Amino acid sequence: MNYWLTKTEPGTYSWSDLVRDGETTWDGVRNFQARNNLKSMKKEDKVFIYHSGEEKAIVGIATVSREFFPDPKDAAWVAVALKHYKPLKKPVTLAQIKSDKKLTAMVLVKASRLSVQPVKKEEFDAVVLQSEK
Questions:
Q1: Burial class for 92, CB neighbours closer than 10 Å (0-12, 13-18, 19+)
Q2: In the chain, fewer beta carbons within 10 Å around the N or the C end?
């Protein structure tokens, strides 16, 4: 199993939208590195949902329910389907992540603009632990 982080503006599509919908097509990614990350996602991989903008926090966990397919809005790009899995007990902010020595090498810290990024298992576990404090 692999672990990922996807970013979204809560005003465009939020964690609560995913909870309401149950499942969604994660499309609209227009960056080659992020596209390659979408192509690497496998069914059942765990995916952090990160609210960008003012909130800047990981708020929940989804799973990949369908591996990459042509983006419905532009077939030159790809999309995946994500399914609601569970909320974090408490959101974990970017500030908390940056202050945790176990998380300073996270792609979120090093390449913060990348909208779809890999997460190491140890990082995934550390974020979940942070949310439980």
A1: buried
A2: C
Rounded Cα gap, residues 47 and 64, in angstroms: 7
Determine contact, residues 82/23, Cβ cutoff 8 Å: yes
**Residues 91 and 57: beta-carbon distance below 8 Å:** yes
Residue 87 belongs to some domain of the structure:
yes
Q: How many structural domains does the chain have? A: 1
Cβ–Cβ < 8 Å for 34, 4: no
Q: Classify residue 47: in a domain, yes or no.
A: yes
Residue 107 lies in a domain: yes
Phi, psi dihedral angles at 127 (to 5 degrees): -65, -45
- Residues 68-77 have pLDDT tens digits of 999 999 999 9
Query: What's the domain range around 112?
Result: 3-127
pTM over the 0.85 mark: yes
pLDDT one-digit tens code per residue, 7-23? 999 999 999 999 999 99
Identify the CA nearest to 20 among candidates 60, 78, 66.
60
Q: Confirm whether 98 is domain-assigned.
A: yes
